[in-house]
Design goal:
Blueprint lengths: L12 H25 L5 H28 L5 H16 L10 H33 L4
Helix pairs in contact: 1-2, 1-4, 2-3, 2-4
This protein binds fe (ii) ion.
Length: 138
C-alpha cells in the first residue's frame, strides 16, 4: 500500500487531491496483486485499472496544462513534455504479455508509476507551486 505523505502536497488543493487520486488508483493495482498472489486471475480487473489510470492521468495532466497556459508558465513546454512521455510510456505497455504474467506485470507497473509520480511531483510540480499560489489557484 502506497501511503500519501504530506511532504508531497504542493499547496494547491485541486492538484493535491488529483495526486492523491492517482495514488489511490495505484493502490487498486496493489490490492489486485494480493489476489494474484492467491492464484486468482486478475486479468480483467487489471486491464480495467490500467485504463482507469490512463484516463485519469490524462485528465489530470490536461488540468495542469490548462493552468500553465492560462498563466503563461515559463516551463510550460518542458513540463508538458514530461507528461507526454509518461502517456506514451503507458500507451506502450505490453498488455499482450499481461495475461501470461499478471503478478509480475502488476508489480512492475506499480513500481514504475510510483517512482514516476513522486519524482515528477517532487521535481517538476513543485516548480509551479509558487506561480499557481500567487495567481490564487485553489
Ligand atoms: Fe505535472
Amino acid at each position: 500500500m502506497i501511503l500519501w505523505d504530506k511532504k508531497y502536497e504542493i499547496g494547491v488543493r485541486s492538484i493535491d487531491e488529483q495526486h492523491q487520486n492517482l495514488v489511490r488508483l495505484i493502490n487498486k493495482v496493489e490490492l489486485l496483486l494480493h489476489d494474484a498472489e492467491q492464484g486468482i486471475d486478475i486479468y480483467d480487473d487489471l486491464l480495467a485499472v490500467v485504463t482507469e489510470i490512463k484516463e485519469y492521468t490524462i485528465y489530470h495532466f490536461r488540468y495542469e496544462e490548462k493552468l500553465f497556459h492560462q498563466f503563461h508558465y515559463e516551463f510550460e513546454e518542458e513540463h508538458k513534455k514530461e507528461h507526454d512521455d509518461l502517456i506514451q510510456a503507458v500507451e506502450n505497455l505490453d498488455l499482450s504479455g499481461m495475461d501470461e504474467n499478471q503478478l509480475e506485470f502488476g508489480k512492475g507497473l506499480v513500481k514504475f508509476l510510483v517512482s514516476w509520480l513522486f519524482r515528477h511531483i517532487g521535481g517538476s510540480d513543485f516548480l509551479y507551486r509558487d506561480m499557481l499560489i500567487a495567481n490564487g489557484v485553489k
